[in-house]
User: Fold these one by one.
Assistant:
Number 1:
Amino acid sequence: MSRASLDKQPHEVAAMFDGVAAKYDLTNDVLSLGLTRLWRKEVARAVAARPGERVLDLAAGTGTSSLPFLAAGAYVVPCDFSLGMLREGKRRHPRLPLTAGDATRLPFADGVFDAVTISFGLRNVQDTQGALREMLRVTRPGGRIVICEFSHPTWEPFRTVYTEYLMRALPPIATSVSSNPDAYVYLAESIRAWPDQPGLAARLRSAGWERPAWRDLTSGVVALHRAYKP
């Protein structure tokens, strides 16, 4: 399976990410014009992991997103449901405790993490609300969630240009650098179908998280959402 459909069947999404694992980080750097590195730094600042804290990094892929939490002295668990991504991550980062897991059925006990974070993965989960409730379950009272996800540019003229880039320029660029360019057609379609910033904040609140708020990055191309467990 080279490309998942927008109904996001788990086996299709996992197979699609298995197919792009080898060049995933490189392709993302190219397609984002290097902005993924900046966005990862902003996620690390928002999570603000402290020494000794336990951080769950969901949709961690090859584990690259987990390294800042490890450097901060936290105990980080990178978790992903793509075995291909995890194998590539284990090859690159053998020290990380990479864990296979589905965001809607997490293999962890209640209230064990101080912070849960997911970057560019929530929109690939079939049951978004189920995943948000699971993240709430494994977070301790007073703990936090940080979500970094593609969103909706706030300036209308730029939004039009951005949409054109997604649907016209992104697939041919992906063809030149990705091991599975069809996956990036799905990427463009899934970004267009994803709710805007207030929409995701409402989903967080509905799942039981408190004080949801967001901050736009790159004029709203990406939004950084944060909320707390009561």
Number 2:
Amino acid sequence: MELPQQPSQVHLTARNLRGIAHPLRVQILTSLRTEGPATATTVARRLNLNTGATSYHLRQLAEYGFITEARSPGGRRERWWQAAHANTVAPDNDALDGSEGLGIAYLQALGRVWSDALTAAIEATPSLTPEWRDAQDFGDYALALTPADAKELTAEIHALLRRRTSAAAAADAQAPQDAARVTFQFQLFPTSEDRRVTQPTDME
């Protein structure tokens, strides 16, 4: 099924965080973005969920603008859903500081979903072809950065991924036979306690 054209981003606010700060909703939205439009039954099958619960979460995602109804293939009397945007922008400072803790709840939901995806990938490694075992990568880097350095590095990585995404979309109809959908997880965060708060200035 051809994926619909979507606006590029949705920004999280104090209001719409209520519709996405839940691990199952993050999973469902991700599935609609990566695997295309689906019914509640299809989403439940994709994610091994209960259809009734899936229907409820789909309605909540729709109420807060994260998904919209899609045209039913072949005119069948089924309710199909599609993602309304290509990606979600992380909560800004206002959303993180307020929203009854929903900004942090959303990030926690993301963490759970990403952790589960990583675990599933590790468990599936024995079933991969030798080529994909060589291509798969699990790694991390420990760096010493200023906040400005961290923002610059993040921007560079996102720019590279956007170029890859644009190139893949342009060549989608001619994708090589051995091409597969991949997930690139990317997180950058301070790990030193002395970087999480502003240090007092020594005036002596």
Number 3:
Amino acid sequence: MRFRLTPRETSFYDMFAASADNIVTGSKLLMELLGADVSARAEIAERMRAAEHAGDDATHAIFHQLNSSFITPFDREDIYRLASSLDDIMDFMEEAVDLVVLYQIEQLPKGVEQQIEVLSRAAELTAEAMPHLRTMENLTEYWIEVNRLENQADQIHRRLLAHLFNGKYDAIEVLKLKQIVDVLEEAADAFEHVANTVETIAVKES
């Protein structure tokens, strides 16, 4: 790691860790949604909305700290990109839950549980990785595994689309379900964006 003569604002590390922990909360709510009765989904969506608001607050805190800090632990554009990508993950997960409720989906298609399992694992890995930003050590396996998970998510997404278009669903139902699985796929992409940003930061700091 590069030797620095100037002090750095270190609160960013704690804020990134808090943001990632909140994403784990969101992934658990997604898992809870899978096994919930239709009547319980609105309450889960409300808790997810609260988690998404907490994520927004965490992101705004990072941006505020960025704007008020003279010295940052790594490049400003990377801090902004990392915070934005973490925020995107929560936004997509909250949107997926909200759509399930708004569209009054009675049964999600088989394969969605695999999408959510991938997101849950990516959330755990991301939360475990954020504290390592302090030292930039033990991060390589993190971004390799998240990229592997994103490739897995792509395959699951393609299989889900093939299932939705096999003629067993009516057109309106296809549109509703496709929007949900597409948003979950965007969440997987956002996890990869976070991992790629962490890799970029680690390379710059090495």
Number 4:
Amino acid sequence: MSRSTPPDSPFLFETIEGPDFSLEMGARRDGLWPVAGTDEAGRGPLAGPVVAAAVILDPANIPEGLNDSKQLSITRREELFDIILSSSIVSIASSAAGRIDETDIRKASLDAMRRAVLGLSSRPALVLADGRDVPPGLPCQGKAVVKGDARSLSIAAASIVAKVARDRMMIRAGLVFPAYGFALHAGYATVRHRKALDTHGPCPLHRMSFRPLRQDGEEAPDDDFAAFP
């Protein structure tokens, strides 16, 4: 008789079919209610803020089609953004480039998530946070959920709100600083963005602690630099 050994890295082998409400309902059975999901957008760009959202869904009125924002089209994200805001309790917060440079992208992201939770009009009993870290300073219990935007509907909703809010901020930023094309790439390191930096240098929205902007050539602690997805 053969025996199988559980893999030592379960997330490498686990198939996630899409977010559901099981984490939230489990918390409710444990007496933790309401539950908020929180997520951020914009860890990787060379410019602009990192934006976080916190969302408390109404279990009787959960929008259809919630998913990791990266799995949705721009049009569908925009549609769901409006639906989420009209049916749920939502709060948005951001950490600007200066804050990112003063600390690091991880700390700035977690602080934006904390402030988004604090901005909710109803205080949650539990916060489900996307990733491996619970934002410090929450007013309630917190739980880190790896790949949370693909596992929890509340986190998926927060990922959509954060992504759309940040994209809209970068469109407005493009009107103030038209040389960089922020409306097209949202501050990520596209070829056009790099060429604009070579020509015009950085503007006040650029993260000077990120490569290739960092003057000493060293990588900032926890630099989450990435190309435009």
